[in-house]
Design goal:
251 residues, 3 helices, 6-stranded antiparallel β-sheet, 23% helix, alpha+beta
């Protein structure tokens, strides 16, 4: 005897307390096809403060500020820019293992400046609105809603997270100060970046990072010497080959 087939319909009411829930999957075409190629992922960062979001317009970063003249402006009044200042801290503020890239970047900067480590002072800079000097790089979002991958790195566990950075100031004397933006490597094949910057402004530092990352890396002096020696050797061998050919033809 066949069981009675009950007709079921979907209604917009509260479910019965004694009824078990069911799953029903529906198929359909995407409404916004352009979103299929965009990265959608859970926010992952390894810093105290969450990453900021910066809208970019083309290749340059839009500061998103407005400038204008007041209706009743006084020509004798001097304008003034008001902003929250940054704070400074010593290297002991960071964890030597968790934030090893900062210490590695400082070593790179000191070597580049040809300074002696025991004759300088290094200070960490905490940006306004942040509570710790080590920050997550911001989301650089273009006009199409796509995130620049320069702010993302491998987390070492097969996934991704936001890349970290830190502003530092290396003080040689009262009048000799060097400002750097230290950025951790993107993956195991990358290197720690120590980028010389004018000031502690994240917008400009990100522009410098993009320019620094797209520029062709310069070969080390050792590599240049090897390449020069190989070039000279190749020229000598070419001449020897020609002389052997002339000698054989003469015989």
């Amino acid at each position: 005897k066949s069981a009675e087939i009950k007709t079921q319909s979907v209604v917009d009411t509260d479910p019965g307390k004694l009824k078990s829930s069911k799953e029903h999957w529906m198929e359909g075409t995407p409404r916004f096809i352009d979103l299929a190629k965009k990265r959608v992922w859970r926010e992952r960062y390894d810093t105290v403060d969450p990453p900021a979001t910066i809208l970019v317009k083309g290749a340059a970063i839009d500061e998103q500020v407005g400038v204008g003249n007041g209706k009743n402006s006084n020509k004798e009044t001097r304008s003034i820019d008001v902003g929250k200042g940054y704070s400074r801290s010593e290297l002991s503020e960071i964890d030597s293992k968790q934030h090893k890239f900062v210490l590695d970047g400082i070593k790179v900067a000191i070597k580049r400046l040809k300074l002696q480590a025991n004759k300088i002072t290094t200070e960490l800079i905490t940006l306004p609105g942040n509570t710790h000097p080590v920050i997550s790089l911001p989301y650089l979002v273009d006009e199409y809603g796509e995130i620049n991958p320069i702010s993302i790195c491998d987390d070492g566990r097969g996934s991704e997270r936001m890349r970290r950075g830190c502003f530092v100031e290396i003080i040689e004397s009262k009048n000799m100060r060097y400002r750097f933006f230290i950025v951790e490597r993107r993956n195991i094949n990358d290197v720690v970046r120590a980028i010389n910057v004018r000031g502690f402004v994240l917008l400009y530092a990100m522009e410098a990072l993009i320019a620094h990352s797209t520029s062709k890396p310069r070969a080390s002096p050792k590599t240049e010497n090897i390449q020069r020696e190989l070039s000279v050797f190749s020229k000598i061998m070419s001449r020897v080959t020609k002389l052997v050919g002339v000698f054989r033809n003469g015989i």
